[in-house]
Amino acid sequence: MAHNSTAFNDPLTMELDVVGPKPNPTQGEPVESVKVLFEDAQIEAGVWECTPGIFPSKREGFREAVTIIKGKGILRDADGNETPFAAGSAVAIPEGWSGEWDIEETTRKVYVVSFTEPRT
Q1: Is 11 inside a domain boundary?
Q2: At 69, which CATH number?
Q3: Coil, helix or strand at residue 97
Protein backbone atom coordinates (compact mmCIF):
# COMPACT_ATOMS: atom_id res chain seq x y z
CA MET A 1 0.00 0.00 0.00
CA ALA A 2 1.40 3.40 -0.96
CA HIS A 3 1.30 6.33 1.42
CA ASN A 4 1.50 9.86 0.11
CA SER A 5 3.77 12.37 1.76
CA THR A 6 3.31 16.11 1.83
CA ALA A 7 6.05 18.63 1.17
CA PHE A 8 6.18 21.90 3.12
CA ASN A 9 8.11 25.12 2.81
CA ASP A 10 11.35 25.68 4.68
CA PRO A 11 10.43 25.49 8.40
CA LEU A 12 12.88 28.30 9.13
CA THR A 13 10.98 30.77 6.95
CA MET A 14 7.43 29.40 6.78
CA GLU A 15 4.65 31.63 8.05
CA LEU A 16 3.20 30.53 11.39
CA ASP A 17 -0.13 31.31 13.02
CA VAL A 18 0.07 33.48 16.15
CA VAL A 19 -1.39 31.63 19.15
CA GLY A 20 -0.87 34.53 21.55
CA PRO A 21 0.87 35.26 24.85
CA LYS A 22 2.09 32.29 26.91
CA PRO A 23 0.01 31.97 30.09
CA ASN A 24 1.67 32.67 33.44
CA PRO A 25 5.11 33.84 32.32
CA THR A 26 7.59 34.40 35.14
CA GLN A 27 9.66 36.81 33.06
CA GLY A 28 8.99 38.84 29.93
CA GLU A 29 5.96 38.63 27.66
CA PRO A 30 6.57 35.56 25.49
CA VAL A 31 4.26 35.11 22.51
CA GLU A 32 3.98 31.78 20.70
CA SER A 33 3.16 30.92 17.10
CA VAL A 34 2.66 27.52 15.49
CA LYS A 35 1.95 25.70 12.25
CA VAL A 36 0.67 22.13 12.64
CA LEU A 37 1.90 20.14 9.66
CA PHE A 38 0.43 16.74 10.52
CA GLU A 39 -1.85 15.32 13.16
CA ASP A 40 -3.80 12.17 13.83
CA ALA A 41 -5.00 10.34 16.95
CA GLN A 42 -1.45 9.53 18.14
CA ILE A 43 0.95 12.10 16.68
CA GLU A 44 1.21 15.82 16.01
CA ALA A 45 4.10 17.40 14.09
CA GLY A 46 4.75 21.00 13.28
CA VAL A 47 6.78 24.15 13.70
CA TRP A 48 6.60 26.30 16.85
CA GLU A 49 8.14 29.65 17.68
CA CYS A 50 8.23 31.77 20.81
CA THR A 51 9.62 35.21 21.63
CA PRO A 52 11.93 35.71 24.65
CA GLY A 53 10.69 35.10 28.17
CA ILE A 54 10.39 32.42 30.83
CA PHE A 55 7.24 30.33 31.27
CA PRO A 56 6.20 27.06 32.93
CA SER A 57 5.66 23.93 30.87
CA LYS A 58 4.45 20.36 31.48
CA ARG A 59 4.34 17.22 29.38
CA GLU A 60 1.26 15.43 30.68
CA GLY A 61 -0.15 12.73 28.43
CA PHE A 62 2.46 13.23 25.73
CA ARG A 63 6.18 13.20 24.97
CA GLU A 64 7.97 15.44 22.51
CA ALA A 65 11.05 15.35 20.29
CA VAL A 66 12.27 18.71 19.00
CA THR A 67 14.99 20.12 16.81
CA ILE A 68 15.80 23.76 17.46
CA ILE A 69 16.29 25.58 14.14
CA LYS A 70 16.60 29.17 15.43
CA GLY A 71 17.25 30.93 18.73
CA LYS A 72 18.69 29.87 22.05
CA GLY A 73 17.78 29.38 25.68
CA ILE A 74 17.56 26.85 28.48
CA LEU A 75 15.08 24.09 29.24
CA ARG A 76 15.01 23.82 33.04
CA ASP A 77 13.28 20.90 34.79
CA ALA A 78 11.46 21.04 38.13
CA ASP A 79 14.65 19.93 39.94
CA GLY A 80 16.66 22.80 38.43
CA ASN A 81 18.59 20.67 35.92
CA GLU A 82 19.36 22.76 32.84
CA THR A 83 19.53 21.73 29.20
CA PRO A 84 20.87 24.61 27.10
CA PHE A 85 19.65 24.70 23.51
CA ALA A 86 20.54 26.59 20.35
CA ALA A 87 20.02 26.15 16.62
CA GLY A 88 20.96 22.57 15.77
CA SER A 89 20.08 21.12 19.19
CA ALA A 90 17.88 18.03 19.34
CA VAL A 91 15.99 17.50 22.60
CA ALA A 92 13.69 14.71 23.80
CA ILE A 93 11.20 15.72 26.49
CA PRO A 94 9.62 12.70 28.23
CA GLU A 95 6.01 12.32 29.31
CA GLY A 96 5.63 13.60 32.87
CA TRP A 97 8.33 16.27 32.49
CA SER A 98 7.69 19.63 34.12
CA GLY A 99 9.78 22.75 34.35
CA GLU A 100 10.19 25.91 32.36
CA TRP A 101 11.38 27.27 29.05
CA ASP A 102 13.84 30.15 29.39
CA ILE A 103 13.97 31.64 25.92
CA GLU A 104 16.84 34.09 25.50
CA GLU A 105 16.42 34.68 21.75
CA THR A 106 13.27 34.06 19.70
CA THR A 107 13.27 30.30 19.28
CA ARG A 108 11.82 28.17 16.51
CA LYS A 109 11.59 24.39 16.72
CA VAL A 110 10.38 21.55 14.57
CA TYR A 111 8.51 19.17 16.87
CA VAL A 112 6.87 15.76 16.96
CA VAL A 113 4.50 15.01 19.83
CA SER A 114 3.48 11.44 20.62
CA PHE A 115 0.38 11.07 22.80
CA THR A 116 0.28 8.35 25.46
CA GLU A 117 -3.42 7.77 24.76
CA PRO A 118 -4.99 8.18 21.31
CA ARG A 119 -6.90 11.43 20.86
CA THR A 120 -10.43 11.36 19.54
Answers
A1: no
A2: 2.60.120.10
A3: coil
